[in-house]
Design goal:
Mean pLDDT: 83
CATH class of the largest domain: Alpha Beta
Strand order of the largest sheet: 2-1-5-4-3
Number of strands: 16
Structural class: alpha/beta
Strand content: 5-15%
Number of domains: 4
Shape: elongated
Radius of gyration: 37 Å
CATH topology of the largest domain: Beta-Lactamase
Number of helices: 20
CATH architecture of the largest domain: 2-Layer Sandwich
Distance between the termini: 99 Å
Oligomer: single chain
Largest sheet: 5 strands, antiparallel
């Protein structure tokens, strides 16, 4: 055996350290270590966590045939039995090895050094030598240094694999949660208009047809786009969204198609566009009616040819995507004004879904309000039991120009300012309470306004007490006589609230 110096071990350590940030490959380390040890063969056996057959992870000094013989020999229980022994280093002469499949003429003796990560046995470092060694303690110590370096590499590899597996499981869990979140059964609304929308979504979801979502702002076009994607055949692939109105004309093409390095001032590196990012999945273009005419031409080509080039590039890239677009504009009027290309319109208008405004589906207002109440009382840590009757009447009578989004914002505000377990009308935004903003101006006097508030308060309290006049009077800090007078004055029938 050649003399092993500190410099040799330092060189082995440097090589092992350089391997930490590289793909897992210990062959170069073993080849260098073999030259330091002066042996003929050096190989690393790793024991899997599941207790299955050991794996031949790295080798040095083996021909292809010898590698195959050694790999076959790993089926023998000899390796695991040796690893479970008490000794840190074991030495065997070739005539002591009961391994019929392992025929290595150059293998005189075999030194085996255990490798541990923490207290766990993870493998064996095996050195074959073809010459007698009287004292193998120095060689065993040198192998121990290499074994500890390999253990460090294995520890990093296990950490990377564990993190990769954790991220994979987390990704699968998030995808499943998104799929469940946008399942058809979780869409809120049972009006006839929404039932028609659900039917259309179920018809088109599992196809690759281009979908055009139309409707006023705030009607839930993005939610329907999510539902289409997560119930489609592409649900396990990417769902990429971009708002065409949110980007300036100078950047929209770069965002959609990407750009090469140096394509324009500030393009210091290659950038993948949304079409590339959505490969195999779904691309959602919101506010498609605001797309510049020049970009409309390029989009038309992608839809026709299913290919494009990055800005400043010559490489043609295939576009395997499912396209969903949405707009709140009247595209027919935009075509007549020359603001939208007619040929692109016909490419996009394969399957149109019109989303009704909240004014057209008033029967869903209460369902949506209850849904948002449950959502935001959990989010803000409140405990709110119900929405009062006057507040419900106010919601039902309002015209909601902002549609579902405005209703959601109104309920969230009401949850935040509510100081009891019931949302009253004064908790709702001022826009819902002001006659001028809702287009319901009246010649209301102060006396009639006070009377109206008083009547609503009495009705709401009677409802909560199941029509019990005495209990209602106590809750309102009044007397039964005064309350009876006001009940008669306002024409209220307490028996209506009795269960």
């Amino acid at each position: 055996m050649k003399s092993i110096s500190i410099h040799d071990l330092s060189s082995v350590g440097d090589l092992a350290a350089s391997n930490l940030d590289q793909p897992f490959n210990l062959n170069p380390l073993l080849e260098f270590a073999l030259s330091v040890f002066g042996g003929t063969k050096l190989f690393l056996i790793v024991f899997p966590n599941d207790g299955s057959r050991p794996t031949l992870t790295a080798t040095a000094g083996f021909t292809i045939g010898e590698f195959r013989d050694l790999d076959t020999a790993l089926e023998n229980p000899f390796w695991l039995e040796t690893a479970n022994g008490q000794s840190i280093v074991d030495r065997f002469d070739s005539n002591e090895l009961d391994l019929p499949s392992l025929r290595l003429p150059s293998l005189g003796s075999l030194l085996l050094r255990k490798i541990k990560v923490g207290r766990k046995l993870v493998g064996l470092l095996c050195l074959g030598i073809d010459h007698p060694v009287e004292d193998d303690s120095d060689l065993g110590a040198a192998m121990g240094v290499v074994a500890s370096l390999i253990a460090q590499n294995l520890r990093v590899e296990y950490a990377v694999l564990g993190e990769r597996e954790r991220l994979r499981e987390e990704n699968l869990q998030l995808k499943q949660e998104l799929k469940e979140k946008y399942d058809f059964s979780h869409l809120v609304g049972n009006s006839n208009e929404m039932r028609q929308v659900y039917e259309q979504v179920s018809q088109v979801a599992r196809s690759n047809a281009t979908v055009l979502l139309r409707g006023e702002s705030g009607t839930g076009k993005e939610m329907i786009a999510n539902a289409i994607h997560y119930n489609s055949l592409r649900s396990k692939r990417a769902f990429i969204k971009i708002n065409c109105a949110a980007l300036p004309d100078t950047l929209i093409e770069s965002e959609l198609f990407g750009h090469e390095r140096g394509a324009f001032t500030g393009a210091d590196k290659l950038k993948r566009g949304r079409f590339e990012m959505a490969d195999g999945g779904t691309l959602f273009l919101d506010e498609i009616g605001d797309l510049p005419l020049q970009t409309q031409i390029k989009l038309l080509r992608v839809l026709q040819e299913r290919e494009f080039e990055r800005l400043g590039g010559t490489e043609t890239i295939s576009a395997n995507i499912r396209l969903i677009t949405a707009t709140n504009k009247n595209l027919e009027e935009a075509i007549a004004k020359g603001e939208f290309r007619e040929d692109l319109y016909y490419r996009l208008n394969v399957f149109s879904i019109f989303l009704p405004s909240l004014r057209q589906r008033r029967s869903d207002i209460l369902l949506l309000a209850e849904h948002f109440l449950e959502k935001y009382e959990t989010e803000h840590g409140k405990r709110i039991r119900r929405i009062s009757t006057p507040a419900i009447d106010m919601l039902m009578s309002y015209h909601f120009p902002g549609n579902v989004r405005e209703l959601e914002n109104a309920i969230e505000r009401a949850v935040l300012v509510c100081d009891s377990n019931v949302i009253h009308s004064h908790h709702l935004p001022p826009t819902l309470q002001t006659a001028e903003t809702s287009g319901t101006e009246t010649n209301l006097t102060l006396a009639s306004a006070v009377a109206g508030f008083e009547r609503d308060l009495i009705i709401d309290t009677l409802k909560s007490t199941s029509g019990n006049v005495a209990k209602t009077a106590r809750q309102l800090a009044s007397t039964e006589r005064i309350l009876g007078y006001k009940i008669k004055k306002y024409g209220i029938d307490p028996s209506r609230f009795r269960k």
